[in-house]
Model the fold of this input.
Amino acid sequence: MRQVNGDQLVGRIVECEAYCGPTDLASHARAGLTRRTAPMYGPVGHAYVYLVYGMHHCLNVVARSEELVAGAVLLRALEPVAGIELMRVRRGRTNDPDSRLCSGPARLTQALAIDRRLDGHDLTAGVDLWLSAGEGLRQTESVAVGPRVGVAYAGPEWAGRPWRFRLDGNRSVSR
DNA sequence: CTCTCGATGCGCT
DNA sequence: GCGCATCGAGAGA
Done:
């Protein structure tokens, strides 16, 4: 859920990827605890927002298991639920179907007006940007699992990990 | 200080 | 299917 200028933009998470700490060579956390990666080493449930390719923002939720010192989940796609026309305006693509407005990590941040000002933001506080429990899987839905996208540089061992999760067949997942 | 290169998306071919 | 935009983090000197 995103609140900007009194408007509420709502999306349902339909695709994400896990990044598992310093030993995961595909994770920014491999650089150790730095100014940039600090959120991943901080409190769970906070945001880690970074800039890729000099122009796109990506939103992560800080998360980790007991044995991990750092970690995050990259939000890769949302199914637009409310504030859809505002998302379309934010995207500047008036002809895109609803299902394409948030179908990519940088698309969803653009649609929801998310940038690095929200880096470190507490996603559990219910202010500006937050997570809320949905209704889970619907009757006919199932989760498809596969390797993460765009991390070949990490080498086959890490790029091959099946740490990408998406709703099978959902039209709002990334291409 | 300088160099390299990316957790991507778009527009054109 | 391919090239490119655009900038800062991190690494090396």
Notes: Chain A has one domain: 2-167.
